[in-house]
Amino acid sequence: MQENIPAAIVITEEIVEPKLELNDSTDIIGDFILDHEYFAADAEVLEIHSETKDHVVLEAITEQKIDRSVENDEVKKVVEPVEETRVILNKLDIEKPLIAVVIDDMGINRKRTLDIISINAPLTSSFLTYGSDLKGLAEKAKDSGHEIMIHAPMEPKVEASLAPDTLKTDMNKDEIEGLFHQMLNKFEDIKVSGINNHMGSKFTEDEEKLGYIMNILKQKDMFFLDSKTSAASKGKALAVLDKIDFAQRDVFLDNENDYEYILSQLRKTETIANKKGFAIAICHPKSQTYPALKDWIESLKNKNFELVHVSKIIEAINK
Ligand SMILES: [Zn+2]
Fold it and tell me: From the CA of 128, how far away is ligand 1's center (Å)?
């Protein structure tokens, strides 16, 4: 492995390039790889963040330290110009760049969940399944125009307080399938389009165990959105193998619960959508996420993006 290779193409507008070198002082928490089918080349964005208490970030940072080899393999593939946005939009058969915003961890903090639900827009609400009044809240979200997903708790590598219904790698096939069916059943007749993983850096690396979940998704015609809490997640490989609708997270919006920070992450999401035709952002029902999201959605009226359910992007890219 060569040292000092360029770590990534930076397609954000922020000047972060000089810092983008893989060294011990660098923490990498987000990445995405542009898909072969829509681009002349793979490209990767590495986001740099520091000092946040969010469990997802801490987990991802730990992952990156462990999985440096994976990152290095991926960053070697970089550096060729991407196609014009117009060409990409034609390929995807869409008019405007699509943006989906998924709100994870819904259904636990009732007040914050209701704040998010009060935003009448095509957002995607991803519910943890152990909160009270799950069905009632999901119904309200649906009435507000949200798509409903399950935010399925999966075992992380790092120590963390786990959801009571966490899918774990030491469970057998029956236990995993039984637990997942219990989650699905809690929504009764409400349509659940797909799932994404809550934590899950350990579980998503386990091809066999994640495979049991993927089989059920396939039977039920549901998609898997990989939250990418591990660079070595088997989500994409399994989805390709079994022809399951799949996408992965591009940006975490609220690793810092700060209004201006969240708006800057939304601008980054717009930049990515302009470059590849679509972008999927994930956020949480945090106190500053709600006002930032509300104001950003208002600003979309004057911009050339379409806010859509995540299933619409998945449909466009998996066709
Ligand atoms: Zn979560």
Answer: 8
As residues whose CB is below 5 A from the ion ligand 1, the structure lists 104-105, 198
Residue type, position 103, single letter: I
Residue pair 133/108 in contact (Cβ under 8 Å)? The answer is no
**Cα–Cα distance between 142 and 132 in angstroms, integer?**
17
**Residue 196 or residue 80, greater confidence:** 196
Handedness of CA 60, 315, 74, 305 (dihedral sign): negative
- With tokens 């009226």, the residue in question is 301
CA-based R_g, the chain, Å: 19
User: What pLDDT band is residue 312 in, cutting at 50, 70 and 90?
Assistant: very high
Largest alpha-carbon pair distance within the chain?
55
CA of 111 to the centre of ligand 1 (A): 17
Which residue segments constitute the domains of the chain, with CATH numbers given?
A: 17-81 (no CATH), 87-318 (3.20.20.370)
Q: How close is the Cα of 119 to the center of ligand 1, in Å?
A: 20
Task: Write out the two tokens for 72.
Answer: 């290095």
C-alpha distances out from residue 307 to 142, 181, 266, 311, 312, Å:
16, 31, 12, 12, 10
Q: Which residues are paired to 147 by β-bridges?
A: 124
Sign of CA dihedral 155, 123, 223, 10: negative
Residue whose structure tokens are 């991407």: 82
Helices in the chain by DSSP H: which ranges? 55-66, 68-75, 85-92, 110-117, 134-143, 173-185, 207-219, 235-242, 259-276, 289-299, 310-318
Q: Which of 84-93, 284-293, 302-311 has the lowest mean pLDDT?
A: 84-93
Residue 14 burial (CB count, 10 A): 12
Q: Would you say 148 and 116 are in contact if contact means Cβ atoms under 8 Å apart?
A: no
Digit-coded pLDDT (tens) for 255-270 = 899 999 999 999 999 9
12-51 pLDDT, tens digit per residue, is 333 333 223 332 222 232 322 222 222 222 222 222 222 2
What integer pLDDT is reported at residue 104 of this predicted model? 95
Q: How many CB atoms lie within 10 A of CB 50?
A: 11
